[in-house]
Design a protein that fits this description.
Distance between the termini: 56 Å
Strand content: 35-45%
Radius of gyration: 23 Å
Largest sheet: 7 strands, mixed
């Protein structure tokens, strides 16, 4: 009898264990319909892209290791793709929603994305990845929270707010595309939006601490974020928990995300929240209001000032972001397995960007080669060994003085290569570089042309892993493991 009871107890425990695993690694199902609509984000009626009738699109809130099954129905008159900005696609890159791994979803068709937010905690976004659709909307927030068995290096906040900040054009995405195709550069935007609006309000209780998640979902403009009278405690940057420094304001560049803790420790009134453009002659501004729930006074006084200095100030701030190596949380390189600073790189790749006119069209090029998308996705061509789809010789690992050209260019690497990747920006504007479906250690920034001697200034101890990095007309260097 005792054996029977013991076996029954084991059976119950096994079922309980399975139930707990399923609870922690559960599934979330979504059906989204993408369509056009008419809104007036900057006061002028225009066509925007809606998801389930919403602009911005619905916010996705996940817990680490949860699985997403999302059926996307495309009701636009153009093929459409969404990319999950910052979500690692381990062995399933074809779910990441970019050309080369995904075929665009044709009009009046659907596609089901399936991916897992594996070992991730942090602030992310999603947005359209083709045909300048991002300039019309289709973007939204994607936040990943910690599992019950994983601690985070801060007290659980009293609330959570998401701010999607970005530049905005009154011109339609189709007109912007036609302008680029005619040989013109992308125009300066018409304004900034916060969560799809020029003005908005959030409410909080005096004395409480709130997490504010900030993501730049714009097209081309770096943005400074600040809150009148309140300090920003930076706790997380694109999934990396950081040393918790205090900042008066943060520069957030295109495609980047960060999370701060803000304590409502001022007198009960309303305060301005400000987003304004950086590094531009004309300063665009969008405002929101932080409303203390016991306030009876409107926001007043001048808007909090932006940083007085430009690129150099922003560079110094970026260097101050350091990885919290003692945080007990999901991250891509748990201490004890290996450390990025102690591994010799397999190869060095230097990528220099440029913006040439090729066949009368404004194009961007890397090492003088501008990418053209083939009809056959690169993943399929590689998997089935289809010849003639792409070339591993058209683009070199070092900058070239050759005339600018177009090609379906691929840089070859080997499994488990440890790559030193240098982004060299020779254009007179800020650039954002993104590694889709993965991330990299940001170990150095600097002025001028990169040379091997710059390695002496690398941070090989506590550099962040990020999925998007800004590059001024200096140089930028990162390392990552493939």
């Amino acid at each position: 009898m005792r054996n029977t009871c013991f076996l029954y107890l084991l059976h119950v425990l096994a079922l309980l264990s399975v139930s707990l695993v399923q609870a922690e690694d559960g599934y979330k199902y979504f059906t989204w319909t993408v369509s056009y609509g008419t809104l007036s984000p900057l006061g002028t009626p225009q066509q925007v892209i809606l998801i389930n009738g919403q602009f911005p699109g619905p916010q996705i809130d996940l817990v680490t290791n949860e699985n997403v099954v999302l059926n996307l129905v495309n009701k636009l008159d153009q093929p459409f793709l969404l990319t999950w900005n910052g979500i690692k696609q381990r062995k399933n890159s074809w779910q990441d929603g970019v050309l080369g791994t995904n075929c665009p979803i044709p009009p009046n068709s659907n596609y089901t994305y399936k991916f897992q937010a594996k070992d991730q905690i942090g602030t992310y976004t999603y947005f359209p990845s083709t045909q300048l659709h991002k300039a019309a909307g289709g973007f939204g927030a994607l936040n990943v929270y910690h599992r019950s068995v994983i601690s985070v290096p801060y007290a659980y906040p009293d609330g959570d707010f998401t701010f999607l900040i970005g530049d905005w054009y009154k011109t339609s995405h189709k007109a912007l595309t036609a302008s680029l195709d005619s040989g013109k550069s992308l125009a300066f935007p018409d304004g900034l939006l916060i969560n799809g609006q020029a003005h908005t309000t959030i409410n909080g209780d005096q004395g409480k601490t709130y997490m504010i998640r900030i993501s730049n979902v714009g097209m081309s403009t770096s943005i400074n974020f600040r809150i009148q009278g309140h300090a920003l405690k930076l706790v997380e940057v694109e999934g990396s928990h950081v040393i918790q420094n205090m900042y008066d304001s943060l520069d957030v560049h295109v495609g980047q995300s960060a999370a701060v803790l803000v304590t409502l420790n001022q007198s009960p009134k309303n305060y301005y929240i400000v987003a304004s453009t950086r590094f531009s002659r004309k300063i665009l501004t969008a405002t929101a209001v932080l409303h203390y729930t016991n306030s009876h006074s409107p926001a007043s006084g001048p808007l909090p000032s932006p940083p007085a200095y430009q690129y150099h100030w922003s560079l110094i701030q970026a260097r101050s972001f350091r990885w919290n190596l003692t945080a007990n949380a999901a991250r891509p390189n748990p201490q004890g397995s290996y450390h990025y600073g102690k591994i010799t790189p397999t190869k060095t790749i230097v990528l220099a960007n440029s913006a040439p006119l090729i066949n009368g069209k404004q194009r961007y090029a890397v090492n003088k080669v501008s990418f053209i998308n083939p009809n056959t996705p690169l993943k399929l061509a590689d998997y089935f060994n289809i010849p003639g789809i792409f070339s591993v010789n058209s683009i070199q690992s070092l900058p070239s003085n050759a005339p600018a050209s177009v090609a379906t260019s691929v840089l070859p690497t080997s499994l488990h290569d440890f790559i030193e990747l240098v982004f060299q920006n020779n254009e007179n504007s800020m650039q954002s570089w993104h590694l889709d479906g993965y991330d990299f250690w940001v170990v150095g920034y600097g002025f001028g042309q990169w040379i091997p001697a710059k390695r002496r200034n690398y941070n090989l101890v506590d550099a962040l892993t990020r999925h998007t990095v800004q590059v001024t007309f200096f140089y930028h260097q990162t390392r990552y493991l493939i």
